[in-house]
């Protein structure tokens, strides 16, 4: 775990409670680099245990264990879990189907499996309005392939770790960049914290999905879409299905390519356009896509884990705390990440039988770094 990890846990101040509360318990998260000194790790485990930690959570990197399709090497995680359990602690595995490297604080390089070839199909990638792509994890528009692979990964995990059921109180599921249920809206340094980020809805597959969703809502009639969206035209009124697009009015920079090329005339979606019927529809689809994506992951996890472990499953939601009170573009960073209505998001996740871990709850709602 390293002494630095212990220092981090201590710095939270929570362990001051343990001196006066013998019932105090905490979870600790493993650092990202792999353990190489197991003797030092054992000492670290005893140290955090003495401070009230009862459970250790660690990533289980898909890219490390499935070295080839349907060929799994669990040796590292067998050893890791043995040391944790032998120290008298519980283990929470995080089924990390995203890559490690590129997110804030990442000091590792564990990509998704090379054989899965995430860059081999544009539909696998997230894409912003400028054409920049992101391969932190498979996008929700990548078809059945990633969900099939996740199902096989979960099945193999359950088969390997069934004997440790009594020491695994929960399993966490990765659902996006950094293991969080979100769009990688602020992964690009040009759109990172504390900016509002960028929507990730501009790949051909994403645009097609939004178009299909909008037409289905309005009786497959583009004229009805046009009427509903007449209050905010997104740069051009809807005259046919091809005009049903994600927000184009999010930059005044000239666009020479992409679905919004030649039609972005203002940057007003985050300040006012989101209030329109068009904005509400886009929000419903954009956030709803995350819930649908989670549903497929959760269904695979429940089918493989429930009968073996019978324990809760959790999803992590990112703490996108900046620009919360932005006077012109309130909640803009959250909206780019896919968080428009936390109540409906949580209700959707509840219906999938997953709990929620919320990060950065201690952070201030500032607009700047």
Q: Helix tally?
A: 10
Q: Could you give a short account of the major beta sheet?
A: 6 strands, parallel
- N-to-C SSE series? HEHEHEEHEEEHEHHHEHHE
Q: What is the gyration radius calculated from CA atoms? A: 22 Å
Examine the secondary-structure arrangement and name the CATH architecture of the largest domain: Alpha-Beta Barrel
Q: Determine the structural class based on helices, strands and strand pairing.
A: alpha/beta
Q: Give unreliable regions as ranges.
A: 1-19
Q: How many separate domains?
A: 2
Q: Give the integer mean of the pLDDT values.
A: 92
Strand runs, count: 10
- Proportion of residues in extended strands: 5-15%
CATH fold name of the largest domain, please? Answer: TIM Barrel
Helix content: 25-40%
